Amino acid sequence: MEFFKRLLFLPESASAHGAGLDDLLVYVHLLMLVLFIGWFAFFVIAVYKHARSNNPKADYHGTRSHFSTYAEIGVAAIEGLLLLGFAVPLWAKAVDKFPEEKDAVVIQVIGQQFAWNAHYAGPDGKWGKQDIQFASSTNPFGIDANDADAKDDLTTLSNEPFFVPVGKEVICKISSMDVIHCFKIPLMRVTQDAVPGMSIPVHFKATRVGDFSITCAQLCGNGHSKMRGFFKVVDQAEYDKWFIARSKAGGAGAVLE
Fold this sequence. Notes:
Blueprint: H1 2-7, H2 18-49, H3 67-95, E1 105-112, E2 115-120, E3 154-156, E4 162-165, E5 169-176, E6 181-185, E7 190-194, E8 200-205, E9 210-216, E10 228-234, H4 236-248
């Protein structure tokens, strides 16, 4: 399997669900390769066998073999297996079986021309009050700075790195402040449109530490190519240190020196 993944130039997955997605992608490509070789061979054989030089007299009975019927049934069966045995369970796991928020790091993510912004609840676990009347280019989440629960909330703005711990579920609630963006972390195998007025959740579990780029996979304006953020996946101790220091640095909107 790893050999075929290298043939497809797939980057190494860094999330728990990535291996299943990569396997499905390999199976689909293998099926397409078999179909390409099979149908091309059938085309060549048909052209040769039915050439005028080989058949000077027309055969009005046509083909007598049922091979093509059996081949089509076999292809349909394999496609059904890929759909029901792999694709549907993967989709169900990604969409219907979300981790409990109490067991995960929950981040509100807003796309903004041309930056990614994140909002974490503070150590008290309570989200500060948010209202669209407070939203601005410097406060994309519309956080009420006078709300007591917002005092220890954390935000990272303008493509500043998002911190998450390795080996723990992460839930990102994706939205947009202006136009449609697309939140994509290639190595985590995560892609989700960011739509104004909607909050769409996605989840993943990072399996190794490192810096992982966030790109916008939806053309969103002249600065689209510059809309690039980062997830910093660190061990739990380093994450806790960053989280506490950031919350003590002034709460929502503060920048860790």
